[in-house]
């Protein structure tokens, strides 16, 4: 089977979200032809869907190396870098993609990078504000306590002669003790307790809830995440200022604990909770409000994008709002053809899919049929567009 045929099969499997099977086909195609930039671009996106972000980055870089004008390869490189939290690199890649092939979707990615970089900048400034205050605490305490008392003189005076008895003084009236001021109540400490710079965000899909805690340089051994039927308990040790961060909440609905996972990354901890049923949670923490069926929410006429509640001082991020009014990207050439093929393939039966693959491959991409009764009878002849001739590639090279 040719590399092109394998890529066509891989793309069809990709549309069906069968990413592992698609990956196997992409690997076979690249073994046959490792000089095609678009093949590495396709496989990079498959790695991205499988959350193999490092591999996705490697394939995107290879695609760019093979074709420095491959805008899609720069787009995939940016997406991989964004997932690896390399926001500067991601922004550069998206800007290059936008320069080669302007697209609304790429603009949205650039704005996402700018938002993340701005958040990182604000977090760094918050950390710098906290450090000087802590350093000033010791000298201030010294001033309040006053200087240390002087050491008493331990030397004995020289032996003196016995003095002559002096005349008894006339009796003096006993002094009246001065009135002591009433004790003042202790003033409460007006300084607020130091606040933690840690913040978190959460969002949900039909099947999962994702909680992201933004905290840099956390060691895996310092993070403890416990899942219970309707409870999430997060404890992180060695946190700046407060020493420990705790997120302990009763969740809005039950979760499947065996399918919940968490990942400790360089700048955050990402927790993925598996919902026990498709439902729209009104909040992360249980407020007594009943959860609604996801189907009911999806069927409502007024549809809103995914909400991203946040404890950030900047408020929640709504990524959908960044591109809500952007027009859909218009596909051209091979990309448009692949989309047509994929759309038809997605809704076809097994027999129709078999007919599509056979007709498309045997005709050199000039015939696409879903009629297996007709296609299965024999080889499908190519039908070139009007005014063009059909040539077999073997004939050309003989």
Automatic annotation (TrEMBL):
Tell me the segments the record calls region Disordered: 117-197, 368-398
- Domain SGS residue range list: 307-395
The TPR repeat units are at 3-36, 37-70, 71-104
From the Swiss-Prot or TrEMBL record, what is one GO molecular function term?
Answer: protein-folding chaperone binding
Sorted keywords for this record are: TPR repeat
Listed Basic and acidic residues bias regions = 388-398
Name of the protein = CS domain-containing protein
- Provide the organism lineage as a comma list: Eukaryota, Amoebozoa, Tubulinea, Elardia, Arcellinida
